[in-house]
Amino acid sequence: MSLSRRDFLKLCGGTAAGISFSQMLVPEVVEALEKAAAGKPPVLWLQGAGCSGCSVSLLNTAHPKIADVLLKIIDLRYHPTIMAAAGELALGAIEETSAAKGKFIIALEGGIPVGADGRYCVIGEKEGKEITIMSALLEAAPKAMAVLAIGTCAAYGGIQAAKPNPTQAVGAQEFFKMKGIKTPVINIPGCPAHPDWIVGTIAHVLLYGIPKLDDLGRPTLFYGSCVHDHCPYRGFYDDETFCKDFNDKEGCRYQLGCKGPDAYCDAWKRGWNGGVNWCVRSATCIACVEPNFWDTESPFYSNE
Ligand code: SF4
Ligand code: SF4
Fold first, then answer.
1. 101 C-alpha vs ligand 1 centroid, how far in Å?
2. Which of 172, 194, 222 is the last residue of a domain?
3. Strand runs (DSSP E) across 64-184, as ranges?
4. Does the predicted model carry a pTM greater than 0.85?
């Protein structure tokens, strides 16, 4: 089947009839993707400085299941957490894949520490020489078709970039600017990034090319709405009815530190873990999709 971009956007955005908390990548999208994926570019998933939480988030993808993503939709050549190969054999996959200039995609998870010539993040060793995330990117990124910066670490440096940023961690766009690398970067922030945001962006790239991005390099499809403007508790905010503690069933969480007014993402309609819950229902928004949220939005449980 062929799926129009318009229908794809409706399905991914959860605006198709009958979908409220979006069931991302419903069977129609999966089928179109399987066809589109045949002969499509291989993916190198590189991990820099981070906690691997975005890999765990991807492994939680519900529609489609992770086995379908890995076996039918993308041609994943390197992923340090889930690949069977190790050592130089594994690193060889980066070299082999990146030999095909302009024909592969890099999915970057984690920040890039540039201090100490990159030695704060060594990803392997070849012929007795340390390979850092910095050196791996310097080698492979200029040849990639595009880089997906997955999670707030890859997009903006991550928690390790919090002041005083002792390892000098930066995100992909900043790193590319420093090194004069021209490869396009798509930011998919979040701490972690939602699996739908990851798979949906990969799907868009495979089916229709690079999606429309906002001025922070994020697909507007997933990051185009302010959490506060759509929050189910917004009426309480407007009426100035605020929760005093987390046990309060009713009221806006602003006085508990909610940063929804600063955050742009669609968690308010998409939900997490298959749509069973979302950040503000049980806690508060910490604006985890925004640059430098670790410095600019903390303390997380206060808005005073
Ligand atoms: S709970 Fe947060 S996002 Fe929701 S209305 Fe209140 S401040 Fe805004
Ligand atoms: S609602 Fe807030 S905490 Fe939840 S994913 Fe969006 S920015 Fe992050």
1. 46
2. 222
3. 75-78, 105-109, 112-113, 122-126, 129-132, 146-150, 169-170
4. yes
